[in-house]
User: Fold these one by one.
Assistant:
Number 1:
Amino acid sequence: MELLKLKGIKQLFPLKHKDVIVLDDINISVEEGEFVALVGPSGCGKSTLLRIIAGLVKPSAGEVIFKGKKITGINQDVSIVFQTFGLLPWLDVTENITLGLEARGMSLKERLRKAFKYIDLVGLEGFEEAYPRELSGGMKQRVGIARALVMEPELLLMDEPFSALDAFTAQNLREEILRLWGSGNLSLKSIIMVTHNIEEAIYLADRVVVLSTHPGKVIGDIRIDMKRPRDKDSVEFTKLYDKIYSMVVTAKL
């Protein structure tokens, strides 16, 4: 079943003398149960597209259709995991995770019940009262993931969630995301992730959508028909990497 449909999305940003087209005629569909990665050169509008999907940015033209209905404001069924964590330093782990629930008017008892559930799911037990300054980068991102999941979204958006982490921590969190995605313990129906890392996209996603730049257009949509866990050294993985890499390089020209 189709969860999300982007129809003719166009985004202009005004400059002093002219408008710059960042995204042009973006048409993408995402089915329930799909993990989709968006890749492309810097400046191709990937992060802007995530914000349009979430309803944080209104497109200059086109429509965002979610579960058959046009989105005209913030989509309450979508959560975002950011690259830069975005934790409030004066709040502890539990308070950061429950911030969105508090904004929705949920009782303290229910907020804590949900928070402890997702603290356990993402491996933050024992850090409930820790402050961001006391956490490593990987732990901060676990808080960011828990904060997104506690809202129990149907669509999770991730904007380069592992790019600020060291290689070992990033790989651990990739495995954690796959574990959570396959666990059946979440409300999630689909995931869309922005990444510059082609290997990461192939390792995690069911589909890789490639965007060009100046302006951003869809130039490729590749299905990854490989069983998980995926062997990065396999011939199939290498062929997919080379194919997508060639498309990204071409997209820069």
Number 2:
Amino acid sequence: MVNTLLLVALGGALGASLRFLWGVGLFRLFGGPVSFPVAIMTANILGSFLMGAFVVFAAQRGAMHLSPFVMTGLLGGFTTFSAFSLEAITLIERGAMGQAGLYVALSVGLSLFGLVAGLWLMRTILL
């Protein structure tokens, strides 16, 4: 358990560092800030693609033991959206379309609500 936790932590540190460097690289590529969150969106898309590719690769090559490092740590640190995408597609592939739709709607809607509630609470307390 401790070894797995350390692998997740290492992967998470690498993934978060890569996400930061990804943002810096796009900032420099575009010559400064852009009005649309391109860095986060493309990190989410790339991370989701890599999650899908890794799931198939690991299952076919017997490498699922790398999942804590790659999926939870590295890709989770790069983007938590990849894990969300995997769960949604897993539900769809199981034929649980209603659950998949509910999961997507609740995850996105309630996450946005949670963020707004956190902003409101802290602004109320601190301002």
Number 3:
Amino acid sequence: MSVPFNKLNKRKKLAIVLSTLMVLSLILAFVIYNKIRYTPYIPSKPAQIFLYGEQHGEKELYEKEFELWQHYYEHDGMRYLFMEQPYYTAEFLNLWMTRDDDDILDQLYACWEGTATHVPEVKEFYKKIKTYCPETIFLGTDVGHQYGSIGESYLNYLKQSGEDNSEKYQIAQNTINQGKNYYETNDDVYRENAMTENFIKMYDQLNGAKIMGIYGGAHTDPRKKNWNHKVDCMAKQLKAYYGDVIEYQEVRKVRK
């Protein structure tokens, strides 16, 4: 039995209307998502921890991140820059800051090959900090990425320096163990909790100093869970621990 033309026409019109509504709904959802995603978080109490979320490897962001740090360094007297790097990587960066050459940075950069941070802009970011913000102290709070290269090299450095029984050695070894656990299990809940624990241990030693931190955007919004929604993200856990003292903003590309 054939379908009458007028009914077929109505069905086509209905299909067009439904398709249009679906597209409009998707556009609206995208707009709302980005509005929420890029809305800064301002705490109710005076901010102590200033977190910036980035998209790793986005070359355009590193200049902006340097400008942000330079502002806090010069105008607010900040000296502690928290990074999504393992403890031992940050310690190597601190050692590099005291040297006249870039050998350590070059070796770190070589070890980052294959990761999102292996872009020339990252090296320039660190070099500018060394030049214009020379009293910067890096603190790494991630699990032990590159534990077989950078991690083991740092342990060997401490052994050669007679510091194999030091707190630094213990922290570095613990970070390596965290890295091994994470890469064996691929457990992102474990990593998020470990990052939070490491952050708290580092920050608690600073007597309430104001700090800036640069992490992937999945870790930095005090309103959200981690990327797979299985646990509160690092920033949200920190808010629960320290109270409403965390300010957050996502570092975005400049739209031309």
